[in-house]
Amino acid sequence: SASKRCDLTGVAGAAGKRQFNMELMGREWMLLPSDMALAWDAEYSKILQHYYRDRRAFVKDACAVWKKLTELGCDVLLKEEE
């Protein structure tokens, strides 16, 4: 089976593997194929690398998005049943 190595994480996995493990910041992390797909995609990998290198930017942006989500809600997605 073919193996693909992530440029960002260095994690290698066989095709069809459902879980990946890597050590980062002194801890063992479990990654799903959806996580790895972001790292394997050239454009998303750039975003991941940016936030990996600048944790403060990640926290700032994540907080702003969370605030927007909680203040604006998602009424469009939730419709009352009649």
Helix content: 40-55%
Please work out how many helical segments DSSP would assign: 3
- The percentage of residues in β strands lies in 15-25%
Largest sheet: 2 strands, antiparallel
* Overall radius of gyration: 17 Å
Helices and strands in order:
Layout: E1 3-5, E2 12-14, E3 20-24, E4 27-31, H1 33-40, H2 42-53, H3 55-72
Antiparallel strand pairs: 1-2, 3-4
Helix pairs in contact: 2-3
Structure description:
The structure is a single chain. The protein is built from three helices and four strands; from the N terminus they run ββββααα. With 82 residues, the protein is α+β, with helices and mostly antiparallel strands. The strands form two sheets. It has a two-stranded antiparallel sheet. It has a two-stranded antiparallel sheet with strand order 3-4. The longest helix is centred in the last third of the chain and has 18 residues. It is extended, with a radius of gyration of 17 Å. The mean pLDDT is 78.
